[in-house]
Structure formats: C-alpha cells, structure tokens
Amino acid sequence: MMFPAVWALYLGLTNYRVTGTAAREPEFVGTDNFTRALEDPLFTSSLWITLIFMAFSGVVGQMGLGFTLAWLFRRWRGWTRRTIEVLVIMSWIIPGSVVAFLWRAFLDGEGGTLNALIPGDVTTEWLLRQPLLAIIVFNIWRGTAFAMLLFDAALNTLPPSHLETAKVSGASTWQTLRDIVFPAVRGHMLTTALLVSMWTFNLFTPFLLTGGGPNYQTEVLAIYVYRVGFGQGDFGFGSAVSAVMLVINLIIALVYFRVLRDRRKKA
C-alpha cells in the first residue's frame, strides 16, 4: 500500500505525462504542480464543490437520515425488522454503476420516473437544471444504509432502563435524545462522521451521473484528478492534486480524532 502512495507523491514532483518527451524522460519540477493547482480556478471550484457535497450528502444527509431511520426502527422485531434490514443492506451492496444507471433513468427529462410522478406535463432535465442537488440526493440514498446500520448498532448498546426511566419521567422525544441518547452514542457518531466524510470526499461515483458537468458544476476533486490525469494525460499534475487530497483527508481525520479524544478525556 505504501509503494503506490510514495510513487504518486514522487510523480507529483515531476512533469510526467502519458505521451511525449515527458513520458520518456520526466523532469523534476519540485512544487510547480502544487502551485499550478492552487492557481487553477477549476481546482478551487472542485474543492468547494467537494466540501459542499461532503457536508450536505454525507454529514448532514446520510447521518441525519441514517440516525432517524435507526431510531424509528429500533423497537421493530420479527420478520418486519429482518425485511427492513435486508432491504437496507441490498441498497448498500448494489454496485455503484447499477445505482447510477437507475438514478439516470429516474431523473431523465423525457421518460424519467420523477417527472412522471409530478402532476402535469413535466419534462425537467434534473441533471442539467439541478446537477449538484441531484448528486447530493443520489449519494444520500446510496450511503444512508451504511449510516443506519452503524447507528442501529450504537443504539443497541443503550441500556433499555435508561430509556424507560426517561419515558416514565415524562421526557419528550427530543429531551430523551438530547439528555440520554446523544451523550451515550457521541463516540459512535464521531466515528460514523469520520467514515462518511472521508468516503464522500473521495467519491468518484458522481462521474457516472454527470461526468462532472454541466460546465464543471459537479466536478468533485476525484473527477478533477481523473480529468487532468487520464483525460489530459498529465500524470504529474494529477498526482500532485491527489497528494493535496491526501493531506485534506489527513486534516479531516485529525480533527475528528482530536474531538473524539477530548470527549473521552471529559468522560
């Protein structure tokens, strides 16, 4: 695992390309690729799109909906619960290419299912009119199952007596969540947030829906690296951007670990 990472860092310091003189004899350019990336407005745009995509589809969407579903279904037992768990797992393990194909059919402007469900003669091209919102909703549907399974396991660690005491005391649902549930599962929530954030930050699947378009509006960093590295053949520059993504991932992980460590100390 270390070799390809170190090799990518090395390529990021060169002008290596797929074709031409730089493919045969790449030259060492130092930090020029990193400077070029920071000066590229498309890189800055891709970074902001990635952060928005991660925040709304991962942290807010998947975690919020995943916890809500886990909380609503926590008391279900028997065949109903098993059926829900099977459906949840199936939605998670379906290959990303299949899910993307289904969502393209769902959001299609002419014969799409979403337009057919809306009253009236609607022919909205959702992937063109609302491309960023489309991939956010798509990723929420794709990853909510994972968050739900993690939160379901966390809620199962709560002693039933604590919830029964809150119910007898007349506490509302929000009071029970605020004073009992959230403090007890905060460590699980931080771990889930870390996994979901890093998973979403590096996601390439939106390419299957929009290809990064229209007009780079859905070009997350993973698609940006693919475009400059494989589309333009500039492996050196693409590797430099990959190294930047690695650093951002490390920063995200360190922030979560710091918060988690502080919570454990207080506990």
From TrEMBL:
It is a multi-pass membrane protein. Residues 48-256 form the ABC transmembrane type-1 domain. Keywords: Cell membrane, Membrane, Transmembrane, Transmembrane helix, Transport. The keyword Signal does not apply. Gene3D superfamilies: MetI-like. Pfam families: BPD_transp_1. GO terms for cellular component: plasma membrane. CDD domains: TM_PBP2. GO terms for biological process: transmembrane transport. Belongs to the binding-protein-dependent transport system permease family. This is ABC transporter permease subunit. It comes from Phytoactinopolyspora mesophila.
